[in-house]
Amino acid sequence: MATVKKFLYVNRKAPYGTIYAWESLEVVLIGAAFDQDCALAFVDDGVFQLVKGQDTADIGMKNFSPTYSALGDYDINKIYVEKESLEARGLTLDDLQHLVWEDEDEDWAEKDSIKVVTAKELAEIMDQSEIVLSF
Amino acid sequence: MSMLHIVNKSAYEKDSLKSCISHAVSGASILMIEDGIYSAIKNTSASSMVESAMKDVSVYVLGPDLKARGISEDKVIDGISVVDYAGFVELSTKNDVVQSWL
Questions:
Q1: End-to-end Cα distance, chain B
Q2: A84: domain CATH number?
Q3: pLDDT tens, A63-115?
Q4: Domain containing A104: what range?
Q5: What pLDDT, in 10s, does the model give residues B15-70?
Q6: Which residue in A has a C-alpha nearest to residue B12's C-alpha?
Q7: Cβ–Cβ of B69/A15 closer than 8 Å?
Q8: What is the count of structural domains for chain A?
Q9: CATH level 2 (architecture), domain B3-101
Q10: Which residues contact B31 (CB under 8 A, 6 or more apart)?
Q11: For residue A12, what is the nearest residue in chain B, using CA coordinates?
Q12: Taking CB atoms and an 8 Å cutoff, what residues of chain A touch B41?
């Protein structure tokens, strides 16, 4: 068994304006492929990555937002969204995609992946992470 | 000279919009594009700055960039006009000068 570490991917950029959001997803999927303990944090403009209903047809860019809904299939079910960042941007949890995962220990019950946390709670989560990758 | 100011950065991350507003004269136009469209959302930490600027300048936001980012038009501050690419061109031609706040 390979060593498993607690990874935290910190996402602070809006999608499409820069390549960070898309690159982060790529690296998250690599971490998951190596069976690491992956958690994602969405802070500052990073919360915009999870906004539902994205449609890039008219800007000539790939809409990568459906990829977030596949994270549950990679056993990524710790997705933390900072409350203060949402509020400063006029958003609520209802504006975000509904991301779920299936818990095999509970007969594949579908559970929510997104947890809205305060900056203070997120500080604790960061503090308990062994590897932090920032995008 | 009539001026069109274009802002393509998020107001929560950069101060481009703030600086643009400080340097726009009465009657000028401001167009939000790309990540700049996030500043058009109502009830945010940036919305009072935008609403205050709207007393003197006309504010526009590019529809395709709103749509790409999943921001519906009903989230946009009342009084901001949503324009399409043709509207972008029209704004560019009807103003004497275009200034992009990179």
A1: 21
A2: 3.40.1260.10
A3: 999 999 999 999 999 999 999 999 999 999 999 999 999 999 999 999 999 99
A4: 6-134
A5: 999 999 999 999 999 999 999 999 999 999 999 999 999 999 999 999 999 999 99
A6: A45
A7: yes
A8: 1
A9: 3-Layer(aba) Sandwich (3.40)
A10: B4, B5, B6, B7, B59, B60, B61, B62, B83, B88, B91
A11: B13
A12: 89-91
